[in-house]
């Protein structure tokens, strides 16, 4: 089907905005190809150092006849999602040798868990862990001894960070290799109910812990559709996975064969062959638009309103919230996965999963079908379903109908006619809001403000009964330059309780909300941030704020003369501990959320 005119128009807008930066980027990767990885030209001592750590592959490496694949891994066994990668490198080396290639672990990247750090000081390192991952990826690939790479990462900041670093080596063919979601445990909706009960003091800490352990119980990503699983949906839509790899459970034969196929596929994409597909050419303007469409069609994480622009800029592509806003008006919501529904990602996969979404979006002209992918079958193969048949990996045509139309639907019967993301603008600045999980009667909230400088203050006020009213909770000095822009997920239960009690409630913040945020309207990523002069610094307790997702506005209803005369509130004292002082350079140099909230992008003018 012909491309939808608005998708075409947004793509043209991105191409035009990116004209100069994309040209510079393509020139860079061409220079890197001309002068970069060429092992036969490296000095003998250099090569000896590179080969000294391996035994069974050394002769193959010395021959220079096959691709040497650099593995960049986010393995650790503190994160359930990344614990799955423990045996991958040794298996991948065997699978590479099967097709005349070799593989080495080029380096590891940090992988921290927002689920562990939520509400605590470690969360202030979370966003900038993405930039650290990008730097670590660059270090790993800097040895110039690899003709391709395999990137092992799955969770929130890890996939964006891997891509941001890897795209600076965009002359190399690369593949993203996911590990899959854990099997379903306690239902996400029940988990949320228990959290709200605990917030109200109705159950004990031990009962809460029992519920949490039942929800997060094994290896793999968490099963809700938050940032980690939104990552995987986007990688499918960009053609950077082996097709259909996103939501296959760890420890299965299918998972293993998809990883084998990924290693062996990247070995076929060498630049001295006839199917050279460098990462920097795969990640073009069309692929970035596809990722944005996938996010909107599935009600994905708001965190990607920061991460996708950062990924794009690393490839010389300028994407901003206007593009998301325009796409959201024409891309229908065709999935309901928690927090936008009751199903988890395993049920989503069973009902059709990412292949079903991609097939429907392509049929409707809402995705670019002509992007360059790592898959031999092109983008059409991402609308098919992988399976093991007769001990072989195959891809099957999907049924015309969804396996469960309460979870995923065809384009002719969507859950909603648009994607559920909107920009809010007004005298407080510019923010974004995800309304796909918010009841329509909550899209407009007008109420007095209560102003806080951190989420602990909000929780204390909630416990004291001070918020039992219609209220717009303002949490400021949470932007990237203030404290690293932590997620404020700990506010989800108390705000949900207030809404359940019948109050009109909203959150306004220059910080982030969890990728799993849901039913309470939240104006987030407010820019400019309060630190440094953003108008959020002028808000006082009792000011009436109007959040209107229908009119796309966010206003404090204060007389203009009074508003202009107000002084800015002083920021809280800077804090040390948990390594936060080491990240001062990143905080001080970060750009705005809409540009990616990155010191790397700002300093390198990407």
TrEMBL record:
SUPFAM superfamilies: IlvD/EDD N-terminal domain-like (SSF143975), LeuD/IlvD-like (SSF52016). Its cofactor is [4Fe-4S] cluster. It comes from the Bacteria. It catalyses: 6-phospho-D-gluconate = 2-dehydro-3-deoxy-6-phospho-D-gluconate + H2O. Pathway: Carbohydrate metabolism; Entner-Doudoroff pathway. PROSITE patterns: ILVD_EDD_1 (PS00886), ILVD_EDD_2 (PS00887). Belongs to the IlvD/Edd family. [4Fe-4S] cluster binds at residues 155, 222. HAMAP family: Edd. This is Phosphogluconate dehydratase. Keywords: 4Fe-4S, Carbohydrate metabolism, Gluconate utilization, Iron, Iron-sulfur, Lyase, Metal-binding. Residues 68-376 form the Dihydroxy-acid/6-phosphogluconate dehydratase N-terminal domain. GO terms for molecular function: phosphogluconate dehydratase activity. Residues 407-597 form the Dihydroxy-acid/6-phosphogluconate dehydratase C-terminal domain. It holds the Pfam family ILV_EDD_C. Its EC number is 4.2.1.12. The keyword Lyase applies.
